[in-house]
Write a structure and sequence with these properties.
By secondary structure, this protein is an alpha+beta fold. It contains two helices and five strands; from the N terminus they run αββββαβ. It has helices spanning 2-12, 84-94; strands at 15-19, 24-29, 36-41, 44-47, 99-100. The strands form two sheets. It has a three-stranded mixed sheet with strand order 3-2-5, with no helix packed on it. The radius of gyration is 14 Å and the shape is globular. The protein starts with a helix and ends in a 10-residue tail after the last strand.
């Protein structure tokens, strides 16, 4: 969890307070030529100013909070099969965890 805490701090300025559960694991090929990536996704609780994250702008173009009513925004301007972010947030909002998520598709059994 030390790596997760470090990434949260580096990319947001927030401090990891609690990891709630394993949400999903994914395997995908990045578009940067670095090959296959294996990722684990966790909903977390953080300490810090949620209204003013210290976003690493060299890696991110925007940030936002998402509730169930906001999920359609995550599908805007996406090609078919590019819905991993949407699917992970939808899974977290449903309160389910530990499922495998197919990159660009829905989680199995959803």
């Amino acid at each position: 969890m030390a790596a997760l805490a470090r990434e949260v701090a580096e990319e947001t300025g927030w401090h990891l307070a609690r990891v709630r559960r394993l949400l999903a694991t994914t395997t995908r090929t990045g578009d940067d030529g670095a090959g296959v990536r294996h990722e684990a996704d966790f909903p977390v609780e953080v300490d810090g100013d949620l209204d003013r994250p210290e976003v690493e702008w060299s890696k991110h173009t925007a940030y936002g909070r998402f509730g169930p009513e906001d999920l359609p925004r995550l599908e805007e301007n996406r090609a078919p099969g590019e819905h991993l972010g949407h699917d992970l947030i939808a899974l977290a909002l449903r309160g389910r965890g530990g499922e495998r998520v197919r990159p660009g598709g829905s989680s199995p059994g959803a």
